[in-house]
Amino acid sequence: MFDISFTELLLVGVVALVVIGPERLPKVARTVGHLLGRAQRYVSDVKSDIQREVELEDLRKMKEEMESAAQSIHSSFRDTSDSIREQVEEPLNQMRDEIDSAKASLSDLGADKRSNTQRVESGSEGTSADAARLTAQDSSLTASSASRTAEKQPEKPAPKAAPNTAQEGVPVDISRPKESEQKS
Q1: Cα four-point dihedral sign 102, 108, 110, 112
Q2: Which keywords accompany this UniProt record (predicted)?
């Protein structure tokens, strides 16, 4: 540690014996030993404190890394959910717009039909041919509007045929004759 050889240590011991004296030398040696022991414990405590701080710093760094990873995952999840929401809302908004325009056209058709009916009833057109033409025009507009609405709605599967049942809901087997018919 201090690079002291045995001869140098022996020389220090002889000088201490001469300076301190043989009666006080064991007491001084004991005191020096206690001081060196305290110094070693103090150094080891400082080392362990430094080691603990280094470990805590590593834990803090790891905690910060975990928090940043969690934040990045949270932001990517939020971005993904926002993009999915936009993709879903766009067709819904288009469908709402189409429904609103269909309602508006149906209400316009109803208003046109009422006004045409009022004109026919009031006799402003004057002939029954004109009334027939207006009625045919209204029915063709209504039919085209109904066909557009039917095109937008998906086809529903036909309902299944109900099983052949008796009055109480029990299936009836018509392939075998009843027991009363077999006895006769």
Answers
A1: negative
A2: Cell inner membrane, Cell membrane, Membrane, Protein transport, Translocation, Transmembrane, Transmembrane helix, Transport
